[in-house]
Amino acid sequence: MNWTPVNFGKYKGKSLPQIMFIDADWFFNGYEKGYFKNSHAHEAYEIIRRARAIKVPEINGRKMLVQYDLHSSRHPKSNGKFGTMCLIADVPALESLNIADHIDFYVPRSCASYDKKGYKNFVYSLKAILFGNRSKRMDKSACEDFFNDDDNFDI
Questions:
Q1: What does the alpha-carbon distance between residue 31 and residue 29 come to, in Å, rounded to a whole number?
Q2: DSSP track, the chain
Q3: For the chain, what is the mean pLDDT?
Q4: Residue 83 has what pLDDT?
């Protein structure tokens, strides 16, 4: 897909895949409020569809799951926001509310409607899981290539 640069707001000139890696909270807020029109509306829908179904990579041929670390609002020092995520081996009888068979960019937003730090943690963890380097530079090409590759998603 050829991604149209956004022509408004603080990310004017950036493509939607870039914005997902820079500020997914801004993207989801804009999507939910209907800011994306015409070609951007179609592109935003595709980003949502893909970002909510990122494949968890296998490790040494073994199926893995993603475990989300959420700051429980029941803990006295917690803030009810996203913490981090990691991969765990898929084993029989594994039960937890925070384990999934795919990576979902929406998880931090499901914890709190505004969570910049949570999304920063999410993207660091995502880059470590998918690229082996949490500091990997995600330029325009890398962001768009990631979202253009169907093999990265369970869709």
A1: 5
A2: -PPPPP-SSTTTT--HHHHHHHHHHHHHHHHHTT---THHHHHHHHHHHHHT-EEPPPBTTB-EEEEEEE--TTSTT--SSEEEEEEEE--TT---TTEESEE-TTHHHHH-S--HHHHHHHHHHHHHHHHS-TT----HHHHHHHHH-GGGB--
A3: 89
A4: 82
Q: How far is CA 96 from the centre of its chain?
A: 20
* Phi then psi dihedrals of residue 36, to 5 deg: -90, 125
Rg (CA), the chain: 16
Half-sphere exposure of 37 (CA within 13 A, CB side): 3
Beta strand 64-70 with 82-89 is antiparallel
Q: How far apart are CA 155 and CA 52, in angstroms?
A: 9
Please state the separation of Cα 24 from the chain's center in Å. 7
pLDDT at residue 97 is higher than 80: no
| Token output for 4 | 């149209």
pLDDT bucket at 113, cuts 50 / 70 / 90: confident
